[in-house]
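Lab notes, practical 5.
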Amino acid sequence: MTATQTDAARADRGIVLPGVVLGAGLGGFVDGILLHQILQWHHMLSSTTRYPADTLAGLRVNTLWDGLFHTCTWLAVLTGLALLYSRITAGRARVWGSRVLWGWVLVGWGGFNLVEGTVDHQILGIHHVHGGPDQGWWDLGFLVLGAVLIAAGWLLQRSARPGRRTR
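Output from the prediction step:
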């Protein structure tokens, strides 16, 4: 392996964490904006009996928790960007077109779906993707989407040619 290829491999490894954190934050934003706000399929605590989203008091609490969730996703995006900026010292413009970065972003988004879908939908049951008689299928689809995003991201970052991955 040449010195240039070694430097490229080091740069590729350096964007794994920033890409995953950035992807988790962006995936959380898509969930919160699309499912919580636009489609209004659920809120953070909408499956709890104490805070039903169809009462004003319940909607206020759910909106507060949605805001806290968005704060966490925003902080994840900022953290991912800061990590990326600190680890890539040369050729930053080329990194944004890198299959390695976008592959790891997809892995992070898929990881968000798997963790959030398992913890909030399955273990805690505080909300479901889309409530009702078919909520189990919606929750399963969310988990499957997470697994597909991880697989697609893994394949995308692996498909980058050595030496031209992030440099």
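Observations recorded by the TA: Residues 45 and 65 are 7 Å apart (CA to CA). The helical segments are 3-14, 16-38, 56-87, 92-95, 99-123, 135-158.
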